[in-house]
Each structure stands twice: as structure tokens, then as C-alpha cells.
Amino acid sequence: MSLDQSARMNLSAAGASVLVAGLLVALKLWALGETGALSVAASLADSAMDLMVSLGAMAAIFYAAKPADEDHAFGHSSAEDLAALGQSLFIVISGGVIAWAAVQRLLDPSAQHMQAESAGMVVMGVSILLTLGLVLWQGRVAKRTGNKVVAADRLHYLGDLLPNIGAIVSLWASKAFGLASIDSVVALGAAAMLVMGALRIGTDAFHALMDRRADPAIVAGIGRIAESWPGVHGFHDLKTRTAGSRVFVNIHIELDGDQTLRDAHDIGAGLRRAILAAYPQADVIVHKDVAREHETEGR
């Protein structure tokens, strides 16, 4: 798949995410006004977060795709991490507000009442169907392009299915048995999920901004490719860092010092292409050093 095709697919997934999130926010706003259910409010807050995350993801895909320039020699992919930090803070605040409202209702039984439960259940059912359609498309895009932003957005929407199902359960329990307190319990659970998810997103973004190394599995995979590459007698100083969906790799390989510069260049270029084939999100710099004589003789 060409870079242009990959970019178009990534943008189509981001656009679909924004469209679905916006539609869900509108539907759940109406459902909240009709039912007054806190579980619907929690699901609405989650969809509002989704809309923000999706807009941020779309902006990040656009901005991160910009080529490196004089002021940003390593590109612009750290914009994804900055956006994620802001989003995580907003999600934590929203989760706290929902939890506070749920506790207030549990402490004040007179405030626990809902209405128009059937209409609310229909809206939440439509929300589940729209979300399922979106995650199927995002999964296809992520599989074909390897884009980590799309993959992360997909995981977020998969997690949204639980609050939607919980809202349906609380509306049904209120309608069938008059158990309005279940709504507050479900809202507390949804708020906890929001906060935990936000902390995870924020922590990952913070580590990326602090130049934390890539996933150990990626580092090990790069090492295996390097040590088995023809003409490479060893490697050292394998260093990685992450920025958004990008992984920056620096590796020193040890080569026969008696070979021509062209041969050494071809070995390094071939290794770089192999690493990129295995990890398309990587940005790889290969340094060439002369191997010690006994290592060269051993090969």
C-alpha cells in the first residue's frame, strides 16, 4: 500500500470516528433530556470525550503527517501526545463530576427518578450499533495501514460499549422494577472506567514526551533483525524513543572494515528497509562501525 493510500484510509477512519461521535452526542443529549438518567449522562460524557479524542486524532494525523522541517527535524508526531495529555485531564474532571452527581443521588433517594425509559433504551441501542460499525471499519484500517492512532481510537470505542450497555440495563431496571438507584451505581462504574482510561492515556503520553524507549518487544525484534542480517558482524547502542505513533530508532552496526564504502552502504540500507518493513511506524538511523578483527574472522 502506498503512503497516499495509507493516509487516505487513516483519514477516512478518523473522519468516520468524528461523524459517529458527533451523532452519538446529539442522540444522547436528547435521551438525557427525556430520561434524566445519570447512566445516560455518563454515556453522553463518554461520547463527548470520544468526539474530542476523535477530533484530536484527526488533527494529529494531519499534523503528524507533515514532513520534518528546519524547526522540527524529527517531524511533528509529538502533537499526538500533547493532545492526549489535554484530553486525559478533561476526562478525569468529567468522570469526577459524574461520580459526585451519582453519590448525591444515592444519598438522596427523593432525587432518584427517571422517565421515558423506552425512548432512552432505543437511543442507547442505536448508539451500540453505530459504535460496532465504526470499530469494524477502524479495525480494517488499522490492520492494513498499521496506524497506531487509529488502533488506539478503536480500542477506546470498544471500551465505550460497556457504558452504553450499562445505561440500557439501568433504564430497563427502572422501567420494569422501579429500581432507579441502579442508574447511580452504573454511573459510578462508568465514571471509574473513564478515570482509569484517562490515567492510562495520560501516562502513556507523558512517557512518550519524556522520550521513553519503545515497547521492549519492538526493541527485541529490531535486535533479532540486525544480528541475523547478512554482512553485519554485531550491533550496539540500539536506542529507541517514541513520539505519538512514531518510533525513532538509532542503531550502530559492526561491519568488515576492508569492504568498499558502497558495500557497507548497501548492507546498512538493506537493514534499514528490513526494519521499516517489520515496523512501518519507525524512523530508523543506521550508523556503521568497523568490527573488531576477531569478529570479522569469525564470520
Folded structure, characterized:
Helix 1 (3-35) packs antiparallel against helix 2 (38-64), helix 1 (3-35) packs antiparallel against helix 4 and helix 2 (38-64) runs antiparallel to helix 5. It is built from 9 helices and 3 strands. Strands 1-2-3 form a 3-stranded mixed beta sheet. The protein has helices spanning 3-35, 38-64, 78-107, 117-145, 148-177, 181-209, 216-227, 261-278, 293-298; strands spanning 234-243, 246-255, 282-290. It has 2 domains: 3-209, Alpha-lytic protease prodomain-like (Up-down Bundle); 216-298, 2-Layer Sandwich (Alpha-Beta Plaits), CATH 3.30.70. It is mainly alpha-helical. The radius of gyration is 25 Å and the shape is elongated.
As for the number of domains, it is: 2
H/E series: HHHHHHHEEHEH
Level-1 CATH class name of the largest domain:
Mainly Alpha
Q: Describe the global form.
A: elongated
Per DSSP, what share of the residues sits in E-state strands of 2 or more residues?
5-15%
State the CATH topology of the largest domain. Answer: Alpha-lytic protease prodomain-like
* Main structural class: mainly alpha
By DSSP, the count of extended strands is 3
Mean pLDDT across all amino acids: 78
Give the radius of gyration.
25 Å
User: Which sequence of strands runs across the widest sheet?
Assistant: 1-2-3
Give the oligomeric state. Answer: single chain
Question: Low-confidence spans: pLDDT under 50, at least 5 residues?
Answer: none
Helix count equals 9
| CATH architecture descriptor name of the largest domain | Up-down Bundle
